[in-house]
Design goal:
alpha+beta, Immunoglobulin-like, 2 domains, 7-stranded antiparallel beta sheet, 3-stranded antiparallel beta sheet, 2 helices, 25% helix, elongated, transmembrane, LEA_2
Length: 239
């Protein structure tokens, strides 16, 4: 007769005495979510890096604004910039001939006065300029200012030759005849010129000057002196 001996230490299904089998539990299994922990760490690390980058950019921008403000204040204090002054000095009519086909042939010499009141700042007048004489929203003639450099404390008078061939409608012809008879002809001289500031030998940013001069003249007879009864000049700058 053989005897089989079973040891509780070797029995894998050993259960505690007195406790039903249904109430006994295996040891809990612990799962380490390594990947989830790593993702959260990377997200937090990436967020910190982005925040540091934004802070760095903001600091650089504020520093740049501060430097530009100091530089602007320094230049303004040293050079004391003043805006140039403009005026229409004279009109001389060389031709004002209305053809039978209602084409008006015009040639007018306009004298534009430009004054630079600055002691340390010069101006360069660009090539893309225009000068127009307008009557009742109709461009009668046009031309260009010369391209030149205007130095410090300088006043320059430019004689601009304006020419035009435009169709003059019957209504405008009648209105002009009335104005001519009354000796009060309203005109508008429009000037546009690109202007570049020059400090020393350093050219700075270019901007546009727009000049509007509203005139009332007594006549537009060729080769006769044109009397200016009233004038009003305005100008503005545009970057």
């Amino acid at each position: 007769m053989s005897t089989k001996i079973f040891s509780d230490d070797c029995n894998p299904t050993r259960r505690a005495p007195g406790i039903p089998k249904s109430q006994q539990h295996r040891a809990p299994l612990y799962h380490h979510n390594v990947s989830g922990y790593s993702n959260n760490y990377q997200k937090k690390s990436g967020g910190r890096s982005c925040f540091r980058c934004i802070c760095c950019c903001c600091c650089c921008l504020l520093l740049l604004i501060f430097i530009m403000a100091i530089l602007t204040f320094f230049l303004y204090t040293i050079y004391k910039p003043k805006v140039p002054l403009y005026n229409i000095e004279d009109l001389h009519v060389k031709s004002f001939d209305l053809q039978p086909d209602s084409i008006l042939k015009t040639e007018i010499l306009v004298t534009v006065k430009a004054e630079n009141p600055n002691s340390h700042i010069g101006f360069t007048y660009g090539e893309d300029s225009s000068v127009e004489v307008v009557y009742s929203d109709k461009n009668l003639c046009a031309g260009k200012l010369p391209h030149f450099y205007q130095g410090h404390k300088n006043t320059t008078s430019m004689i601009v030759d304006l020419t035009g061939n435009v169709a003059l409608e019957s209504g405008l012809q009648e209105a002009f005849a009335r104005n001519q008879k009354e000796g009060k002809i309203p005109l508008l001289v429009r000037v546009k010129v690109p202007l570049r500031i020059v400090i020393g030998n350093l050219p700075l940013r270019q901007f546009n000057v727009f000049l509007n001069c509203s005139l009332i003249v007594d006549n537009l007879t060729p080769n006769e002196k044109v009397g200016v009864l009233s004038s009003n000049t305005t100008f503005r700058f545009e970057l």
